[in-house]
Amino acid sequence: MSKETVLSTKHLLGIKDLTPNDINLIFQTADGFKEVINRPIKKVPSLRDITIANLFFENSTRTKISFELAEKRLSADVVNFSASSSSVTKGETLLDTVNNILSMKVDMVVLRHPTQGAPHFLANKINANVINAGDGTHEHPTQALLDSYSIREKYKNFNDLKVCIIGDIMHSRVALSNIFCLKKLGAQVKVCGPPTLIPKMTTSLGIDVEYDIDKALEWCDVANVLRIQFERQDEKFIPSLREYSTYYGITLDRVNKLSKEITIMHPGPINRGVEISSDLADSEHSIILDQVENGVAIRMAVLYLLAGQNG
């Protein structure tokens, strides 16, 4: 591949490591793959000689299916690994697990792991390309890429665009990756949620914090709504789901009262009736299903571009 079509990094460990040119190259490549997945024959032979291992040490539905579908659309050979049914349960280390898989001549590793920095650790130890599919509460780069790509589809560019990320910012890897990605693309970013769910270091990222949901919605063009991640919380950060829904839940009625039209996003899974109402999630304001479709195209683009560096 020519330099104009090569990413600046061998791995996708986080948005923090990408340049704006990298992000735009991924988007441009995804444009072509989106055409592929919307035609009758949805498969191309681009990665016919590549073997990819999906290593998921945490439960996942959308991300795992999206990666696997992207890999199969590119004609790659796919190996799926689940920690719950592996030797990890017998005490095998992450590095030993991966090395055993790599000895079977695997070219790329897609890793989801509960420990922050696990993909970075692997990338320094193995020769295969590593793609971070979510590490703890750190980053989830392909989710941020598909979110920004979905915004780009609707608004064309990010100049003067105002995006508010709403909900459990503290425990969300999606939030951090989105902040990095949107800022690199030139958007204005703000976060909103209960004070107990906003990390103190948030303003050091160069973004503003808003605690009033109605003011946040009135300010933004796009609202990316996150769920409360109870599985990552060691203590109780909100009094109850009912109280959270009352003060921070976004409903169709709340959005219809705004002085302008806004776009609603959600990375999933949706807790309907908690952070977002069903009628809003299914309304014309929502591009949630577009995000799901775009996830396959974005992941095809990432896999294709990283694999091209090995040619």
Q: How would you sum up this structure in a few lines?
A:
The chain is 38% helix and 14% strand.
Structure report:
The chain has 311 residues and is α/β, with parallel strands linked by helices. The protein has 2 domains: 3-139 and 292-308, 3-Layer(aba) Sandwich (Rossmann fold), CATH 3.40.50; 141-287, Rossmann fold (3-Layer(aba) Sandwich), CATH 3.40.50. Helix content is 38%, strand content 14%. It has helices at 20-37, 62-73, 94-102, 118-123, 141-155, 173-185, 213-219, 241-248, 252-256, 278-281, 288-308, and strands at 51-56, 77-82, 108-113, 129-135, 162-166, 188-192, 208-210, 222-225, 263-265. The strands form 2 sheets. It has a 5-stranded parallel sheet. Strands 2-1-3-4 form a 4-stranded parallel sheet. The longest helix is centred in the last third of the chain and has 21 residues, at 288-308. The radius of gyration is 19 Å and the shape is globular.
> Uncertain regions: pLDDT < 50 for 5+ in a row?
none
How much helix, percentage-wise, in residues? 25-40%
Portion in strands = 5-15%
The number of domains = 2
Strands side by side in the biggest sheet: 7-6-5-8-9
Mean pLDDT: 91
Overall 3D form: globular
* CATH architecture identity of the largest domain: 3-Layer(aba) Sandwich
* Structure summary, number of beta strands: 9
The level-1 CATH class of the largest domain: Alpha Beta
**CATH-assigned homologous superfamily of the largest domain:** Aspartate/ornithine carbamoyltransferase
Characterize the largest beta sheet: strand count, sense, and whether it forms a barrel: 5 strands, parallel
- How many helices? The count is 11
Rg on CA atoms, Å: 19 Å
- Terminal residue distance: 8 Å
CATH topology of the largest domain: the name is Rossmann fold
